[in-house]
Design goal:
nine-stranded mixed β-sheet, alpha/beta, 359 residues
């Protein structure tokens, strides 16, 4: 039996699927089966898949009932100890499987493991969910703070707890994770091991209009189910970040928003002292992380739940007490790299520093 079963659903993914397949076949960890579940593609997707002659690839006809059904079919057919998710338009970096399998082998208490992810394409950025299991679990109460196409989970644990993707859900991953945190622990490797492609034809982009409302329903359900807190009244401000953008609020609205957030977090901490959903030692840090997800470092009401802002110049202060070395130059250059818009300029400065420090 393979150690890992890779599940990748496809539907008219011909434009990007070769890059996705190559990223799986190029993994440094090779003990896996690669289940590609095609949901009646009408473009050249099938031709591209069939052009590969790797025995680990298993092409499966989907049920034509959507993404969740394809994923559940893959789970039911998988033979590996671990199941790795992959999307047909994303990229897995070469050491992803090796590092995730090693982590799960060493941490039997963790059943769902993700990694950090780089966003590329129409927009660029990074998604860096927490590696602390309690913080990761708490974040999933409020938002899908998890990179789906980097997910790796224990097949037997998910099947035993009837953890399958809900069909006919527009946010099948978030809804599944919200259910899963009742039974399992979740973590993330704090390293970018996957790349998420943002483009106009992606499933998430196409259904963005309905995500906000459904996302809010999941949040309300989570608060009720895990903390017995009812937040479903129409005037409650704490809605999905997709439905209500904090950055666009005026200051008086932000203050009102933070007051409600403060009251909610007080209730969560009070109820958690009884339920122990989050370990007492981690509850303050977990709540501060969630405050940051909504408001960043803004704290107009002087809430005790808001995270303390880290001074940006702390590292600069350390520079003056260290000997001047090549590594120090490069560390400093790394700090300012994000400010340099032109890659050619960055490379030019790097070359000059190499010459200076070699002398």
């Amino acid at each position: 039996m393979p150690k890992i079963s890779v599940i990748m659903p496809t539907k008219n993914a011909g434009k990007y699927i070769a890059e996705a397949i190559d990223s799986i076949l190029d993994q440094t960890f090779s003990d896996f089966e690669f289940l590609i579940i095609d949901d009646a593609s009408t473009d050249n997707t099938l031709d591209i898949i069939r052009s590969y002659h790797d025995k680990r690839i298993k092409l499966i006809n989907g049920t034509q009932k959507g993404l969740s059904a394809a994923l559940n079919l893959g789970i039911s057919l998988a033979q590996g100890e671990y199941i790795a998710r992959m999307d047909a338009d994303d990229i897995s970096l070469p050491t992803r499987f090796e590092k995730q399998a090693d982590y799960l082998d060493a941490h039997p208490e963790i059943s769902l493991l993700g990694t950090w992810q780089e966003h590329f394409g129409r927009k660029h950025g990074f998604h860096k969910p927490s590696s602390n299991p309690d913080i990761a679990k708490m974040a999933l109460i409020f938002t899908c703070d998890f990179c789906h196409s980097t997910a790796m989970f224990r097949r037997d644990v998910f099947i035993q707890n009837n953890l399958f993707y809900p069909e006919n859900s527009p946010i099948e991953d978030y809804e599944l994770w919200s259910k899963a945190i009742e039974f399992i622990n979740v973590s993330n490797i704090p390293e970018v091991l996957g790349k998420y492609r943002i483009h106009n034809q992606s499933v998430t982009t196409q259904k963005v209009d309905i995500l906000g409302e459904y996302d809010t329903k999941i949040v309300y359900h989570n608060l009720k189910y895990y903390f017995n807190i009812d937040c479903s009244c129409p005037n409650f401000l704490l809605k999905s970040r997709r439905e209500q953008n904090y950055k666009e609020m005026k200051k008086n609205k932000k203050i009102e928003y933070q007051k409600q957030l403060d009251n909610l977090f007080y209730e969560i901490k009070r109820k958690n002292a009884i339920s122990k959903f989050i370990k007492d030692i981690n509850i303050d840090e977990a709540i501060a992380y969630c405050w940051y997800l909504f408001c960043r470092y803004d704290n107009f009401i002087q809430s005790n739940f808001a995270p303390k802002k880290i001074e940006k110049n702390v590292y600069v202060g350390k520079l003056s007490f260290q000997p001047i070395t090549k590594n120090l130059y490069f560390n400093f250059l790394g700090l300012i790299k994000i400010k340099i818009k032109k890659l050619n300029l960055y490379n030019f400065l790097k070359m000059k520093l190499m010459k200076i420090t070699d002398n």
